[in-house]
Structures are given as structure tokens and as C-alpha cells.
Amino acid sequence: MKKERIMKIVIFAVVLLIPIIYSFFYLKSYWDPYGNLTDMKIAIVNLDKGKDEENEGREFVQSVKDSNVFNLCEVDEETANKGLKDGNYYAAITIPSDFTECLNSASTTDKQIAQITYSPNQATNYLATQIVNSAVKTMETSLEEKISGKVVENLADKLEEVPDSLEATSDGAKEILGGSKSLNSGLQELNEGTSTLNNSYTEFDNGIKSASEGSNTLNAGINQVNSGVSSLDSGATSLDSAISQIKTGADELSSQSTSGITTLASSINTINTGAQNLDSGIQEYINGVHGMLKQLESSGALKSGTADIVINQLNSSETKLTTGSNTLSQGTQKLASESGKSLKLLSDGIGNLKYYLSQINDGSGKLKAGISTLVTGTQSLKAGSSNLTSGLATLSNSSSQVKTALNTLQEGTQTAYNGSTELVKGVQTFNDKIDKGITETKEQLKSLDGIKEFTENPVEFKTEAYGEVNSYGIAFTPLFLSIGLWVGALMCYVVLYYDQKNRFKIFGSDNKNKLLQNILYILIGAIEGIITGALLKIGLGYEVQNVGLYYLASSLIGITFMSIIQCLIRNFGDIGKFLALIILVLQLAASGGTFPIETISKGFQPLSAYLPMTYAIKLLREILVPTASNWKGSYILILLCITIVTLIITYVVDIIRNKKELKENIS
Length: 667
Known about the structure:
It is built from 15 helices and 4 strands. The chain is mainly α and 667 residues long. It folds into 3 domains: 112 residues, abc type-2 transporter like domain (abc type-2 transporter like fold, 3-Layer(aba) Sandwich), CATH 3.40.1710; 258 residues; 195 residues, no CATH class. A 4-stranded mixed beta sheet has the order 2-1-3-4, with helices on both faces. Helix 14 packs antiparallel against helix 15. The protein is rod-shaped and about 230 Å long. The two termini are 41 Å apart.
């Protein structure tokens, strides 16, 4: 009897502990799965050959080992493949032979992608591969950050060289500016020089034109002089012939008496007049030639001193001509004065006449010789004047062309000077822009300080959890606590209510006091909730801010689930058991205890709002994971309503069933 009693207590205790047995061991096994990844073996194969004494593959392997995330086994390729086949490794990571070369290509134009081969062994455990996938993704992100840091570091180094290049460009621009300023200064002097030359050459060109015109005038005058000299030469010849005739006449006069003397007297007068005219003409001719040469020299048609040269050439002829003319004039004057004397003296004078005629004849010879020399000089002068006229004409034409060229040259130098001025302004602006750019670039490049470290971790995620969960298991506690209480309620009715030996009397199906029985089962549900909540809290060590609310919610959930199981089994029997299991399965799928409601199948999502475990999980979640929201009252109210409704249904059904049995017994 005592043994049977102990057995009843043990069975009853086990029934009460079913929720904690179910929920505790599930939660304990899954409490912190990510904290035990160091026991998972991952094979890693480093085939990287490295480059220039650098091996990025080796550094990557070491960094993964240092992270202590997995049990990393560095093996060769054959061992890794065999380990995957035998199930010794959950995954294998293979680093290619060109890993270092590919990473270093980031700073070159020929960029290559490094391809690390990741081989998860899904045949061992699919969930394990998902965990490994997440960790490998973290490795990939870390590696990308490192590569980004190297690329940015290299870029920063290149950018820091830009100011030096710009400074070299600035120095070159300054040299160009100095050269352009010197060019501008030289072009300014050239422009001023060509302007002065052009202005001076205008006067020179005008002088050339005046000289050409004067040369033409001189040539015309020389032609006239030459014509006069020819006439003079002809007159001298005639004079010489006349003197010969006079001499002949004097001879005849000497022999022919009075008639000859008369003829002689007439001839003498004629000679005297001609001699005076000749002397006067010679003086006028000489004065005219001298004046004309001086005028040409003063006008610039002849170079200074040219007239003196010509006059000197004429001096010898002029002297001889003047001497002869004076001698002739003196002789004729004497002849004329003597001829007026009485005829009686004529006879005496015939001797003198012959003598003077001899002198005249000598003077006429000298005159003729001088005139010959004058003819030669005037012909030379005419030839020189013609050459001078021709040369001055050519010079005048050439001078016009030179003047046109000087105008073009002046315009060109003015344009070049203007262009050079603009060039100086442009180069000055260019140099100023470069200097400004260098200053701004240096200022902006200051922002590159620490860029490598920044790009390796450009964004820092500061975790300020909304409803912080400090362990993986705490997130599953609401689900497994609820499942445990549901299974516990179901096992209470399976073990206690359907006890064929009727060891638990009041809890058995044959008990007639259903109201008290219902109350006791509800009490068991509350006790299961409190015991399960307490043992989970103590055994797993999680903290609860509001302990009273935690135990209240646990007991309420136990009561609600017991009332539902009670309603199903008491009213539907074995079908109720089946319905309880179906509802349990639906709640596992659609209550949101594992995956978010939004991620489950669309067909299950509408069921979530009608499942009691949905509100039990939400209530426990708000108690265990503090948030700013406060829906606890609503969830408690919903669970209370479910409890009240199911209890009323169970109570009403019991009343109806009792009345029916009472009628059957009476009849």
C-alpha cells in the first residue's frame, strides 16, 4: 500500500514536471549554439604562392585562426576533400595560388578578382552549414574591408603626390610666365622700334621722292646746259671761222685800203658785240649751273658735296672758257676803241690789228679748247645725271615697297605685342589658378589622413538593442515554455484523467464531481506554470525585471492551456486528444515562436491570430525582453478570455451531460 502511494506521488510529480522536462532540456541544448562554434571543424587549404615575400593567404588564415570562431584545420587539398567525404569537416575553404597577386592587382590597371572556394558540407547538418555560411560571410566582409583599405591607402599615396606634380607644373608655368613677360617686353621694344623706323622711313621715302623729282629736273637742266654748250661750241667754231675771215680781211685790208678798212670796222663792231654777248652768256650759264646744283643739293636730290664735285669738274673748263672769253672781250673792246680813231691811224693800227687778231685767234683757240672740254664735261654730267635719275627712280620704287613692308611689319609687331600681352595675362591667370589649386589640393588632401583606417571600418554599428536579448536561448524561452505547458496539460489528462487503475480518484474520468475536478486541473495548470517558470529561471540563470508578472504570466498560460486541453478532451474524448496535437502542431508552425510570422507560408499566416500560444509567446517575450511597448495587459486579457470561454463551455457541457444522465437513470 505504501509502495502504491509512493508511485502515485512519483507519477503526479512527473506529470507536474513534464513542462520543465520538455522545455528545459530543449532550451539548455540550444541556449547558446553560436558560443560553441569552436568545436566545429573547418578545413582550410592555403595554395597561395605569394609574391615579393608577401603571402596574403597565410595572413588570412592566421586572422581566421586568431578569431577563434571555428576549429580551423589547415590541411592540404587531398586531406580536405577526404575529410568532407568522411564527414570530419563541416566545410572546406580553399585559397587559390594567385591570391596575393590578385589582391595586389587592386592598385594596377589589370585588376583581377581573387576567388576563394568555399565548400559547405550540407550532408552533415544543414543548419550547421547555415551557421558556417554566416561566419564565412563575416570573413568575406572583413577581407573586403582589408582590400578596400589597401586600395584607398594606395590611392591616398598617389593623391599625395599630386601637389608635388602641381608644384612642378607651377614652376614650369612661372618659367613660361617669365618668358612670356620677356617676350612681351621684347615685342614692345620691337613694336616701338618698328613704329619709329616706319615714321622715320616716311621722311626718308619723301626725301627719296623729292630727290627723284629733283634728279628729273636736274636731268632736264643738264640737257638744256648740254644743248647750250653745243650751241656755244657751234658759236665758237663760227667765231673761230669769223676770226680767220677777219684775219684774212685784215690782210686784205692791209692791201686794199679804204674799202677793206670799212669792212674791217664793221666786222670789229660785230665781233665786239658777239664777244660781250658771249661773256655775258658764259657768266649766266656758269651761275645757272652753280645755282641749279646747289638747289638740288639743298632739296636732298643730291647728296651733300655732290654739287661741289660737279663744280670742281667744271672748274677747269670754266677757267679756260672764262679766260678765253675775257681775252676775246678785252681784244674786241680794244679793237672797238681803236677803230673809232681816225682813219689815219688805221694804217698804223693795221699792224696792231694783226697783232691783236693773233691774240684773238689764240684766245679763240683756247675758247674752243675750253668749250670742247665743257662739252665733254656736260656729256659726262648728262650721263651721270641719267644714271642718278634711273637709280633714284629705282630707289623710289624700292622705297615704296620697303614702306609697305614696314607698315606690314608694324602691324604684325603690334598684333604680336597685343597677343603677347594676352599671353602674359593668360599665363598669369594659369599660374594663379595652379597656385590656388595647389593650396586647395593640399588643404583637401588633409582629409586623407586616416583614410585607410576609415575605409577598413567606415561604419560602426553601435548596438543599442530595442528589447535586448543577451543570449540565443532567451529568445526561444517563450516558445519552449509555452510548448512545455501545453504538453504538460495534455499529459495531465493522458496520465491522470485516463488512469485505468483509478489511482488518482478525483482526477480520474469516473469522478462525478466535475466542477471540483475542473478546478483542480486548473490549479495543476497554474502550479505547472509557476514551477516551470521558476525552474527555468533558476536552471538557465536568466534575469527577469518583473518577477511577479513573470510568475503570473506563467501560471496564467498554464491555466489557459489546461482549460483548452480540458475542454477538448472532456468534450471530445480521443478526438479531443487528436485536436490538441493538431493545435500544437499549428502553434509550432504559426505562433511566431521561431521564425517571424511574415516569413512562414501564406496559408499559415491567418491562423496566427486565432492560436492561444501566439499570445502566450508575445506575453512572455515582453516580460523577458523589455521594450517600450506595453501590450502585456492586452495579451493577459486575451488569455483570460480564452480561459473563461473554454471553462464555461466545459461547465455548460458538464451540466447538460449530467442532466441527460439523470434523465436516463430516472427512466
